[in-house]
Write a structure and sequence with these properties.
This is Leucine-rich repeat-containing protein 58. Keywords: Leucine-rich repeat, Repeat. The protein is α/β, with parallel strands linked by helices and 363 residues long. The chain is 15% helix and 15% strand. The chain has a domain of 61 residues. 30% of the residues are buried.
């Protein structure tokens, strides 16, 4: 939790508005008694509590007395043994931040709705449900249109809701450490998103709609099953951090790749095509003529060779905003056509330098 030190009076005011019960080894009954007496005392002195910390205790039930703190803005219930979050906590009129990570919450532990009627909406801007027992994305979250920061890492979630595009205020979506296998196209419609954390899942590919996230600054994809990235990802001009380690695409880039020698037919066909020899109907069987017509050009601009069935699959760093590069899959006719990686160019003094990627984490 941040403490502002720039102004001592501001710090004092913050401390006066904070009630800290963290790390006191409290059980439900003990905390209820303390909260009740503390509430009466604070109400008599007309001092409103805005921050309540009850993290790192042994609570199994939500303390009902918390509802009497009507001006509460931050509530930290993390590192307890809670099995339920009642609807009452989401109806607190000024609550902006709710931290309930590392408890024993399931999808059934959450209220069926976080909003309260057509004219009433939950005031939460930040919700942290990481480290619980959720098995699927809580659909009632979709109605929290004002939510900016959503943390649900370390659960057992298998899919992201396709309706997530409705959460247009989201700036941070952290859902790493789950069992997600695919990312819906609708994620690309989160126009305010600045950080997307998808690490430590089972994702094999990303939708091309990721390229629409123009405000994205951090994309964490490590520990997945990605074999390649969508080519349009280079359009993310504001991306400053991209984490890719422990993915097949990186393993294939780092390790030497085995190449089976080409067949005699392929070698002969390569010579014919590379030397521009004309082969007409009657010069060779029809099957060979069809084979010759299936030639693929090597993508190395310095090579004029071709390949047929035998090719080298290589992950190449493609220039990204003038400095760092993104690995993309390319096909070459020979391992000799793998171009050595160039040294990163010095910082440019142009305006484009503002958009250069600062981190590409591969290992």
């Amino acid at each position: 939790m941040e403490v502002y030190t720039s102004d001592s009076s501001d710090t004092d005011s913050r401390e006066q508005k904070t009630l800290d019960y963290s790390r006191m080894n409290l059980y439900d009954i003990t905390l209820e008694d303390d909260l009740y007496s503390e509430t009466k005392q604070r109400l008599k002195s007309q001092k409103d509590i805005e921050i309540l910390l009850v993290n790192n205790n042994r609570l199994k039930c939500f303390p009902t007395t918390i509802k009497t703190f009507v001006n509460l803005r931050t509530l930290d219930l993390s590192y307890n043994c809670l099995t339920e979050l009642p609807a009452a906590v989401f109806s607190m009129p000024f609550l902006v931040t709710l931290v309930a990570k590392n408890n024993q919450l399931t999808n059934q532990s959450l209220p069926k709705a976080f909003t309260h009627g057509k004219n009433q909406q939950c005031s939460l801007k930040e919700l942290n449900l990481s480290g619980n027992l959720l098995t699927h994305f809580p659909e009632q979250l979709i109605e929290m249109r004002q939510l900016k920061y959503l943390y649900m890492g370390g659960n057992k979630i298998t899919a992201i809701s396709k309706d997530i595009w409705k959460m247009q205020s989201l700036q941070v979506l952290s859902i790493g450490g789950n069992l997600i296998t695919e990312v819906p196209e609708s994620v690309g419609l989160l126009t305010q998103l600045q950080a997307l954390v998808l690490c430590d899942n089972l994702i094999e590919s990303l939708p091309s709609s990721i390229a629409r996230l123009k405000t994205l600054k951090s994309l964490l994809l490590h520990k997945n099953r990605l074999k390649h990235l969508p080519r349009d990802i280079v359009a993310l001009k504001n991306l400053a951090e991209l984490s890719l380690r422990d993915n097949p695409l990186v393993v294939r880039f780092v390790q030497d790749m085995a190449l089976n020698p080409p067949s005699l037919m392929e070698l002969s066909a390569r010579i014919v095509k590379s030397n521009g020899l004309e082969v007409q109907t009657g010069d060779a069987p029809q099957t060979l003529l069809e084979y010759l017509s299936c030639a693929n050009c090597c993508v190395n601009p310095n090579c004029k060779g071709v390949f047929f069935d035998n090719r080298v699959e290589h992950i190449k760093f493609v220039d990204f905003c003038g400095k760092y590069r993104v690995p993309l899959l390319q096909y070459l006719c020979s391992s000799k056509c793998i171009e050595p990686e160039e040294e990163p160019r010095p910082h440019s003094s142009s305006n484009a330098s503002r958009y250069m990627m600062r981190k590409v984490l591969l290992g």
